[in-house]
Amino acid sequence: MGWYNCSAHGVRVPNYSECPECLHERLVEESMYRQENIARERADLARQRATEDGVCDCCGQRFVERTRVRPNGKRWTGVLARHEANGVCPACANQYGGFD
């Protein structure tokens, strides 16, 4: 069994094994890389949720923006008439007859 000296740290290490200092540095670097990826994914998810979330002008409830209901063909009356331009959440449209 032979030995070699790590050129980066000057540590004497058995052949076919990794320098403990190099191993530690590599593990720390990989851990930091994983943490950065997790933080980036969380930020992307938060941005995605922010673009998907809408707030209903009628009831103030948060909902998925792509489900916003707008008048389709006929004009809204009553409570929904005030929100004809922006539309409302599906719950308000259902409650006040926006799907008729």
Topology:
Blueprint: E1 3-5, E2 12-14, H1 20-52, E3 53-55, E4 62-64, H2 90-95
Antiparallel strand pairs: 1-2, 3-4
Helix and strand run: EEHEEH
Q: What is the straight-line distance between the termini?
A: 85 Å
Mean pLDDT: 90
Give the overall shape: rod-shaped
Strand content: 5-15%
Q: Which spans have pLDDT < 50 for at least 5 consecutive residues?
A: none
How does the major sheet shape up? 2 strands, antiparallel
Seen as an oligomer or otherwise, the chain set is single chain
Supply the number of helical segments.
2
What is the strand tally?
4
Specify the helix fraction band.
25-40%
Largest sheet, spatial ordering of strands: 1-2
Total domain modules: 2
Whole-angstrom Rg: 30 Å
Structural class: alpha+beta
Question: Could you characterize the architecture of this molecule?
Answer:
There is one protein chain. This protein has 100 residues and is an alpha+beta fold. It has 2 domains: 1-52; 56-100, no CATH class. The protein has helices spanning 20-52, 90-95; strands at residues 3-5, 12-14, 53-55, 62-64. The strands form 2 sheets. A two-stranded antiparallel ribbon has the order 1-2. Strands 3-4 form a two-stranded antiparallel ribbon. The longest helix has 33 residues, at 20-52. The mean pLDDT is 90.
Describe this structure in a few short sentences.
With 100 residues, this protein is α+β, with helices and mostly antiparallel strands. It has 2 helices and 4 strands.
